[in-house]
Every structure is written in structure tokens, then in C-alpha cells.
């Protein structure tokens, strides 16, 4: 019998979780020696591996709690992971394997928006619920499908973009902001959102510049924005290219405010970006640092018990990956319980039937409806910055 299988464990502590799940499974009736399979596709290698690790830890902690309480439908929960290597094609191949061969009840994943968008049509066609704990591209959940099997506990670009514009205006007095956007569908999603948010305020943009994932110098793009009079930079990119933006600003000696989506949180940004890393104001959905919630304290204690390498809030960067995945897994457990089966359409309806859940990020009240399959909104966002490698809320 399988327990919490994990073919690409990022930490030796995974074996302890396997043992815990095995003990839980052995306590269940002999007739129930099967598992509820939960799939995860994420970046488990490369510059965004810390994000994939955080999502894994959030899922593992929630699954351990669920299994200790007796599992789901009388069966233990099993986590099966695959590395998409930030590649949409590999992500789609992994999704087909997990759905068709492994028979997962729900698939989590799509750390990168391009990967998620590649999976959306297949998951809707397969009628297997997909839960997004990270990728923020607006079209992921707002994909036009009916019925729609795509759910999310994460930020949403169009809402994030409004928050970025509000902060730039309120805190930095921005009147002519510029954009530095990754050249992929995530960047395109935020170009639409930021443009709409600026137009709603009657504001222009100094320009829109593109960043490639492998750029090692973006001084030319930044120079164009500077010459156009940009007084704030909106940055949308993951760890590597975001770090290059800040290093290029340092070389230019341009001290311009940078208001960012949460991409820099996904890896070794504070190490890679150099002295300007702490200048980035970055949106998040959750942070353990500066959080006096009893639920946050209890969850951090549980993480430290499960993963001894975690000794405090600084060791759980990015906390959003843990928190989003943890809450999403518990909401998924409620959906499966509501469904009373592992049938995809029934689980989909089970998400809509969730009433209240006291989560890590917030207390959820009817988090999903057929018209809105995103559980988090602008009221759940907080601005942070890196201080000595730790993501700290900005007062």
C-alpha cells in the first residue's frame, strides 16, 4: 500500500512524513486500504525551487493533519509530486500522467502562470478539479469554461495590479509610473491589469518594457523608462529577472521606487539582487513575520516540528507558498467530504458547498461560487520587503 509518496523529496524530513502517514493508514480499517491521491505539479528545481518547496511543505502539513484525523472518506491522503521545470509542455505531460495513470482526485500546481494556462484546458476537459496555490494570472480561473474546474487560493493579477497602483500613488506620489514586465503570459496578464488600473485613475504610463527570463542586464530598458520620466517602477517577474532589474538599477545609480508583484519571494532574491533587494516593496497574501495570530503561531510550531531545518519565520520564505497550499488543501478536504466521493464533478460541487473554514490566511466564508473561483481578494494582500533574507511586513 502506498502512503505519502514523493518521488522528488526536497528534504530528508519527507521520509518522516511517509512514516507518519503509514502509521495513520495502518490504523484505518483493513477494507479501506486505498488512498485519496492528491497531485502536485510545481517548480521543484531551478531558481524557483524554494517556491515549490514551500507549496510542498504546506500540503504535507495539511495532509498530515487530515490523516491524523482519519483521512478522507475513510482513506489516507497521498501526495504525488512532479517537477514541471518551469516548462508548460512538461507540466502538461505531468498532468496527463497524474490524472490518467495515477488517478489523482485533485491536481495542485502551476507555480508559473504559463504552466497553469497550459493545464487549464486539459483539466476542464478531464473534469478533474485543479487547485492553484501560487500562479496569479487572471485568465487561469477566468477561463470561460462552463463548467469550470479551476479553483485558486492565491493572488489574482487584476486585483494585485489595482493594489500596486494604489500603493504607488498613496505612498510614492506616482504620477508617471513605468512597467518592467516578464515577457510571457504572466507579464501580459499584468500589463492588462496595470493599464486598466492606471486608466481608472486617469494616469499615463511612462512606458512598458519587457524582461526575458535569461536577461543579465536590463539597463537599456530601464534607461528608456528613466528618459521617459518614470517616477515609480511596477515590476512583474520571478526571482532571476527581478534580481537583474535591481542590479541594473544599482549600476545606473537610479533611486526610483519599485513596487512589485510577489515574484521575488519565490527564491534567493535577497542573495541574488544585491544591496537594492531591500528596496523592493512586494505584495504577499501571508507572512509569519509580525503575525500575532494564534493559528499562525500554531502552524509555525507544527512546521518546525515536521521540518527541523525550520527554526523561525525567516526559514519559511516564501510563506505565501506554505499558507496558500495549506489552506487550499484543507478547503479541498472539505470539498471531498462534501462530495462524498472522488468523482470530479461531485468534488467541484463540493467546493461550492463549503460554508466556513477558519484558515491560516483568514476565515473563509463561502470561498467559491460558480461565478468566482478565487478564494482570496484584495483585502487579503499585504506589502512586504526583504530584511536580512526575511520577508517582513511594511508598517
Account of the 3D structure:
The chain is α/β, with parallel strands linked by helices. It folds into 2 domains: 13-155 and 292-379, Response regulator (Rossmann fold); 158-284, Rossmann fold (3-Layer(aba) Sandwich), CATH 3.40.50. The protein is 42% helix and 16% strand. It has helices spanning 13-26, 49-68, 88-101, 113-126, 157-172, 185-200, 219-227, 239-252, 269-272, 294-306, 319-339, 344-352; strands at 36-42, 77-83, 106-109, 130-132, 150-152, 178-182, 207-211, 233-236, 258-260, 280-284, 356-358, 363-365, 382-387, 390-393. The chain has a 7-stranded mixed sheet, sandwiched between helices. Helix 2 (49-68) packs across helix 11 (319-339).
Q: Brief overview, please?
A:
Pfam families: Peripla_BP_6. The strands form 3 sheets. The protein has a 7-stranded mixed beta sheet with strand order 7-6-8-9-10-13-14, with helices on both faces.
Please name the defining characteristics of this protein.
16% strand; globular; 395 residues; seven-stranded mixed sheet; 14 strands; disordered N terminus; alpha/beta; Rossmann fold; single chain; 2 domains
Low-confidence stretches: 1-33
> What would the average pLDDT be, to the nearest integer?
90
- The SS-based structural class is alpha/beta
Q: How many beta-strand elements?
A: 14
- The percent of residues in helical segments reads 40-55%
**Count of the domains:** 2
Specify Rg, calculated over alpha carbons. Answer: 21 Å
- In order across it, which strands form the biggest sheet? 7-6-8-9-10-13-14
End-to-end span in angstroms? Answer: 50 Å
Coarse shape: globular
| DSSP summary: helix tally | 12
User: What is the name of the CATH superfamily of the largest domain?
Assistant: Response regulator
Give a quick account of the main beta sheet: strands, pairing sense, barrel closure.
7 strands, mixed
Just name the CATH architecture of the largest domain.
3-Layer(aba) Sandwich
CATH topology grouping of the largest domain: Rossmann fold
Strand content: 15-25%
Listing every helix as H and every strand as E from the N terminus to the C terminus, the arrangement reads HEHEHEHEEHEHEHEHEHEHHHEEEE
Please write the CATH class name of the largest domain: Alpha Beta
